[in-house]
Specification:
Layout (H helix, E strand, L loop, with lengths): L2 H29 L4 H8 L7 E4 L3 E4 L4 E4 L3 E4 L27 H4 L9 H11 L1
Antiparallel strand pairs: 1-2, 3-4
Helix pairs in contact: 1-2
């Protein structure tokens, strides 16, 4: 290939990437508006405004976010931004708390709120 042809292809690809980036930015701005079409559009993006930065390197779900999963299941975040019931802070006297550490399995990826590990542990530990 000749040098002008390679330059033309690179300019075309650069322009295409810039156009795609601008289009996505415009769609994301439009999706934040209070417009019925924008609400339908944002419903197609499963992570649209559902996560937020947390700390220096992490992300966490936004409070009250709902994550739809395949198979008609979904995860619902509580008002504090965690899955499960909101807990009292500070901890009431006589209350024992258990913290589950993990990733998607611990969070309950792909299962409903009543099918997570903590949902099964809560009544069992509460009875003890």
């Amino acid at each position: 290939m000749t040098r002008p042809r390679v330059t033309g292809i690179l300019l075309f690809l650069t322009g295409l990437l810039v156009a795609i980036g601008l289009a996505e930015g415009a769609l994301r701005l439009f999706a934040r508006s209070n417009n019925p079409i924008a609400r339908q559009l944002s419903a197609w993006d499963p992570y649209n405004v559902k996560v937020e930065p947390h700390g220096r390197f992490g992300y966490r779900p936004r409070p009250l976010a709902v994550f739809p999963y395949p198979g008609n299941t979904r995860a619902t975040e509580n008002a504090a931004g965690w899955r499960g019931p909101v807990v009292a802070v500070p901890k009431p006297a006589g209350t024992v708390r258990v913290v589950l550490l993990g990733e998607s399995t611990t969070h309950g990826w792909g299962v409903n709120d009543d099918e997570t590990i903590d949902a099964y542990l809560r009544p069992d530990l509460g009875a003890r």
